[in-house]
Structure formats: C-alpha cells, structure tokens
Specification:
- The chain has 15 helices and two strands.
- The protein is mainly alpha-helical and 406 residues long.
- The protein has a single domain, classed as Growth Hormone, Chain: A, CATH 1.20.1250.
- It has a two-stranded antiparallel sheet.
- β1 and β2 form a beta hairpin.
- It starts with a helix and ends in a 6-residue tail after the last strand.
C-alpha cells in the first residue's frame, strides 16, 4: 500500500464519524427511539432536521473560518465535537436535549466533511493520476461506519430490546473518539497550501463559482432527496415485514458498495466532462431509493441498498471533482464550503417534511416518493453543468464549450 493511499484511508474515518455515525445511524436506531420516547414521525424527522440545521451552521462557520485557519484545525475540531455529541446522544431521554446534541453533531460533521474533502485533494498533488482516487477514497470512507453500524446496531436492538437504544449511541461515540485520535496522524502528513486570505492574488471567491449554478441546484436537490431515504428507509422496511437479518444485510451491503464506489466511479469522475458524472450518480441513487416503494422483499431490499451505497458518497465526489478541475487549489476548501451550505439547506427540509406527510397520510410512501422525484430532477439539472477548467496560472477558470473549445 502506498503512503498516499494509507493517509487517505486514515483520513476517511472523517465521513465515518460525521456521516455514518452522526447522521445515518439514526435510521437504524429510529424505530426503537420512536417506541421508547413515544415520538410521532414529525418529531422523529425533526431530530434529523436538527442535525441538518447544525450541518448548515457548521458549513457557514467553516466557510467563514477556513480562509484564516486552513482545513486541518477545523477538521480536528469537528471530529472531536462530533464524537462527543454522538456519545452524549445516548445519555438523555429528553427530545429537546437530544435535538441539541444532534445539532452539535451536525455542526462538527460539516467541518469534518468540508475540510476533509479539501485535504484529500492535497494528498497526492505530485501524482495527478492518483488525485481523483484519493478524493474518492476519502468520501467512500463512510462505508466503514455504515458497515460497523449495520452489523451491530440491529443485532443489539434485537437481542436487548428497544430500550437498548442509548447503548448504540454510546458505543458509536466511543469508537468515534478513537477514530478522531487516529485522524490526527493523517493530518500531520498532509501538506496544504497557505489559506486564500494569506495570498495576495487570491480571487474573490463567490464570483468564481458563478459557472457552477446547475451543479449547485442539483446538489441542493441531492440534499433534499437522499436524506428522506436515509432517515426513514429502515422504518419503512420494518413496517413492510423486513427481518433483522434483512436490515443487517441491506445496511452492510450499502456500506460495502460505498467502499467499492471509488473503483466504480473513478473513470467517469476523471474523464467525463461537466455535470455528466453527477447526473449518472444521481440517477443510480434515484433508482436505489425507488425500488423499496415497488417491493419490500429481501432481494429488492438488497439491490436497493447496493445501488444507494454505490452512489451516495459519489455525489460529493463529483462536486469535489468539478471544484478541483475548475478552481485553483487555494480555493478548494472555500468552494466546498459553499456547496455544502447549499446541500445542507436541502437536507434540512427532507426529514421533517417526510415525517409530517407520514403522520397526515398514515404512511411513509409519499415522503419517500418525493425524495425519489427530487433525485431524478437533480440528475436532469446536472446534465446542464458545463465543463470548467482552471488555467495553469491558477487565475479565473475557463469554460469549455461542448466541442472542447474554450
């Protein structure tokens, strides 16, 4: 294993903590928490919306701070804040207090995801042919957390009963603290350019993103669409007769295909122009999200998880690829913060809206169906994203016309 790949793998515990533990594991624990805390679906959705609000606040804060501090301090801070918030989620039965911890986990998770994505792009700067692989490996690291959660949480709750849901959060929190410590090793071995604020020739920032509007709107719809599936899919499957074995296999396969995603999408991310990689990834995501609405048998559940996992973290990878190709290196962190703000705004709406629909209509199907529709629309919009390439001097990027001319 090359040194660069090892650094990327260790750094990839970031998405495991910020996304798989702090956000996605909630779907596995949700049925038990609803039963024990007597929550309706709107309240259950609110706890994930609180996490998304924290993510938005964290993304804005990161956008304001990263130019002064660089990515490393914010990544380290975010890891430990998220780990502590995940652990503390298991120490309260009050919904308001739980929402506070979910909010803090979202704030820390945003810093981790944004800054880690930027740092992953600096791991193999001397090997351009490996740069896209390092980015994809980082984002696919969430699969580590998904697999850990998938093989432990459903079994824990099946054996110890729904009253054991606090133990699931405490266990994840302890593992997250250990991962936070490990990530410091990777941070010490990554060289990143001086923050943009310290560079006299830095561009103004927001203006350089004007050519990325179609991708930005598609990313908003990604945030709106994927979070409905990742909040309520386990509750939907349980309502439709899925066993603990079905849930374990589906969630674990989702994690495995997340890990395989860098191989699956490496070529398209590196070679396809404009928004075509993003459109392809979101199409696969929509297919995976829609299948359980058609049937809830074991095979369909597994195919759904496999497709969703193969595409979920690859949407941020596609955005990171666009940013890396179209902007100077010193602006990558700031640009990813802007895109993450857009994404976070989308995912705030999804959980509580889907939960409210479920309470009003007596089924989760309409909310999950709306999530699929948002993903399909996002895929169509991504096709409108033109190719943008930064010039060699790192000045304002050039837009490539469909025929390859700039």
């Amino acid at each position: 294993m090359s040194r660069a790949l090892l650094i990327a793998l260790v750094l990839s515990v970031g998405p495991a903590v910020s996304n798989s533990f702090a956000r996605f594991a909630y779907a596995l624990v949700l049925p038990a928490m609803r039963e024990q805390l007597a929550m309706d679906y709107a309240a259950a959705g609110w706890l994930n919306t609180a996490n998304a609000i924290g993510y938005l606040v964290g993304a804005i804060g990161t956008r304001l701070l990263v130019a002064r501090t660089g990515n490393k301090p914010l990544f380290a801070w975010g890891m430990f804040v998220t780990a502590i918030a995940v652990l503390a989620t298991g120490l309260s039965h009050d919904v308001t207090t739980l929402a506070l911890w979910r909010l803090l986990a979202g704030m820390g998770g945003a810093a981790v995801f944004i800054c880690g994505g930027a740092l992953s792009a600096h791991i193999a700067t001397d090997r351009p042919d490996q740069a896209m692989t390092m980015i994809a490996v980082y984002f696919a690291g969430g699969g580590i957390g998904l697999i850990l959660c998938g093989v432990t949480i459903p079994v824990l709750l099946a054996q110890a009963g729904p009253q054991a849901w606090p133990s699931a959060w405490i266990g994840m929190g302890l593992v997250a603290v250990a991962m936070s410590v490990a990530s410091l090793w990777a941070l010490a071995r990554i060289d990143e350019p001086a923050p943009a604020a310290a560079t006299a020739s830095a561009p103004t920032g927001a203006g350089s993103l004007s050519g990325f509007v179609p991708a930005g709107v598609a990313y908003l719809l990604f945030g709106l669409g994927y979070i409905g599936y990742m909040t309520f899919i386990i509750a939907w499957l349980r309502q439709n007769g899925a066993s603990t074995t079905d849930v374990v296999l589906m969630w674990s396969l989702l994690g495995v295909t997340t890990l395989a995603a860098p191989i699956l999408w490496r070529g398209p991310l590196a070679r396809w122009r404009g928004g075509r990689p993003m459109a392809a990834v979101m199409s696969v995501l929509a297919l995976g999200a829609g299948l359980p609405l058609l049937a809830a048998d074991s095979i369909t559940i597994l195919v759904s998880g496999a497709l969703f996992g193969a595409a979920m973290f690859s949407v941020p990878s596609a955005i990171q690829s666009l940013v890396k190709k179209g902007l100077p290196a010193r602006d990558w962190g700031s640009a990813m913060a802007v895109f993450t703000i857009v994404f976070a705004a989308g995912q705030i709406v999804g959980p509580v809206a889907a939960g409210r629909l479920a309470d009003l209509l007596g089924t989760l199907a309409p909310g999950l169906g709306a999530s699929v529709g948002a993903l399909v629309l996002g895929a169509l919009l991504a096709l409108a994203q033109r190719d943008i390439r930064a010039n060699a001097a790192g000045a304002m990027p050039a837009r490539t016309q469909p025929g390859g001319r700039t």
